[in-house]
Amino acid sequence: MKNNPLYVGTEQLARPSGNDGSRPAEIGRDAFRKDYARLLHAPSFRRLQGKTQLFPGAEDDFFRNRLTHSLEVAQIAHGIASRLNATAKPAAFQDAYVNTHLVEFAALAHDLGHPPFGHNGEAALDELMRDSGGFEGNAQTLRILTAVERKLIHCTGKPPSSSYGLDLTYRSLAAVLKYDRPIPKKRKKRDGLAKGYYGTEADLVAAIRRKVAPGLPDDRPLKTIECDIMDIADDIAYSTYDLEDSLHAGFVSPMSLAHALVSDASLRTAVVEKTNKALLEDQYEEVDGRELLEVIADVFDISLPPTFVGLLKSSFLAGKKGRKEPAVHFVDDVVPAKVESWLQDQKFTSDPLGRTQLTAERVGRLISSVDLVLDEEFPQLSRVKLTRQAKLQVEVLKHLNYELVIRSPRLAIVEHRGRDLVSKIFTTVCDSDGALLPTDWQTRYAVTSSDLERRRMVCDFVAGMTDRYAAEFHARLLGNGATIFKPF
What we know:
By secondary structure, the protein is mainly α. It contains 21 helices and four strands. α11 runs parallel beside α14 (about 305-315). The chain is globular and about 75 Å long. About 45% of the residues are buried.
């Protein structure tokens, strides 16, 4: 570690408590491996198994939850880092290497801050905390690691303390800091969800910046290479494995994805706008409308009926003048086309082996499509990015799945109920002045000194709930709870 240009300096390996990252007696166990272990044994990490990723786990034990999603992101992130270490990085970083333990840590921790019931739970808490610093999943992740989780830390010359969270190294904390900007303390009702960190962690973020990237200009956000790898790995997993869950559930099929792009102008517009935003961030050319169907054909390796392309050509997204025809395979005759389309859909909706082959090959190709963007002044802030074609596939499928599945009426009903549960739990506990909190949370609540701190404390409690626990807690507060004696 000492001779690795990516991790130069001992300050970033220090911990908020003042302790060193690792002790001399801990032979063969570096600071990042210790952070990885502390995360793995944390209750908030275990609770991810009870938080929905896309479909409720009670519906089918095939579906992923936040924990299995995080494990998949970690595997993909490790694959990206290992490939960079074996190819581009040694030459670019003078034989340095990306620490795979730290990359896996970032991937496993990235969803800790998600509240029960997914994005609707997040929206409910943000609305309730709008005048108290807001709520956002990534900001909550940092807060969980540094304040909500409790570990008794022994410091030389000080009494033991549990006020440092898991007391992780500054470099590990930087690896989960996706948005280096403060969330406004108060926002207008029309303002959407703000991504960043809470004001309660402002001093900590300032310390992370000083210790991880000393000399970094104030107007430049900090995002480490490990965080960037985690971010891309999350997008790859989301656009691949959430799609697999949707195929298994029968919510989508290859042909239904293509048909939606052709027939639904508002959906098509939403997908194109979001995809173009992501492409422009990497300085890539915006998507041509005809490329949308190429994505479906390429990813699933299928033939599309020519009528699909004809309809898309006549839409407002017709391709640029002089552009070549899309490189997709077409079935010429109407009846054979219908049979072919049905057979191709069956392969991915009814054949588990076909889906597994799709996801395995797709993830491998995407990992191989990641390129390094070297930052010579701050190597630790170097970026990674997908090639344009890989990025296009990830973004189109990610946003298509969101529009067709997450916003579908069947899931919207579940999400709406979850939002209502979260809101009622929060307001009821706040109105009780902490009396309805479990004993250990009441102890924390008792030492708060302002209404802002108390609301943040209740928000921490509600955000940490699993879906099942939230539903049960709500029933015991406001419904027909099964028992008054079960601990909570």
